[in-house]
Each structure stands twice: as C-alpha cells, then as structure tokens.
Write a structure and sequence with these properties.
Number of helices: 7
Structural class: mainly alpha
Radius of gyration: 12 Å
Number of strands: 0
Helix content: 55-70%
Largest sheet: none
Oligomer: single chain
Shape: globular
Strand content: under 5%
Length: 102
C-alpha cells in the first residue's frame, strides 16, 4: 500500500500507466499490481521512469495472469523491449516475489 502523497506526486506517471494499460486492455488486477510495483520503486531520474513503468506493467500482468509479451508492452509504452527485459525480474524480487526461471 502506498501513501496518497505518492499517488499525488506521481499522478502524471500513473496516468501514463493507465493509458498504456488501456492500450493493452489489461485487467483491473494487472493494473493494480503494476501500480504497486511502480510506486514501490520509482527511480529518481525522469529518464528512467518510463522504463520502470513499462517493466512494472509487464510484471504486473504476469502476476495477475493477464500476461502480455515484453514486445507488446514495450510498443504500448514506447520503450525498447530491452528496457523491460533488464528490469522486470528485479522489480518482482524487490517486492518480495520470486521471478519465474524460464
């Protein structure tokens, strides 16, 4: 759970997250998981925020069983697939979850 202050501070980024989730037609559960993952690890630098946002959406969709490919999320979020690939497992592990070992 994140504070209301976090949600206000990152409101523009959360709107971006919702827009990407809309393009991907993600479930409410996937959106909620993605939001929690993003707010748990928002990077300081703005240039990294979009990549973490995309990785959060990818990981959140996996958690919710509403999985999308890294390529689909990358295209919807306007980031490279490598940006997602290099971050999503760490986001899960930092949240106390075990990343799949495929």
């Amino acid at each position: 759970m994140h504070s209301a202050r976090d949600r206000v501070e990152y409101a523009a980024w959360l709107e971006t997250l919702e827009g990407v989730a809309d393009r991907l037609e993600l479930s409410g559960e996937a959106r909620s998981c993605a939001t929690d993952l993003f707010l748990a690890d928002v990077p300081e630098e703005d240039r990294s925020k979009r990549a973490v946002l995309a990785a959060s959406i990818y990981a959140g969709s996996l958690i919710a069983g509403d999985g999308r490919t890294q390529g689909e999320v990358a295209e919807a979020a306007d980031v490279s697939r490598l940006s997602i690939q290099s971050r999503w497992k760490t986001l899960l592990e930092d949240a106390g979850l075990e990343a799949p070992r495929w």
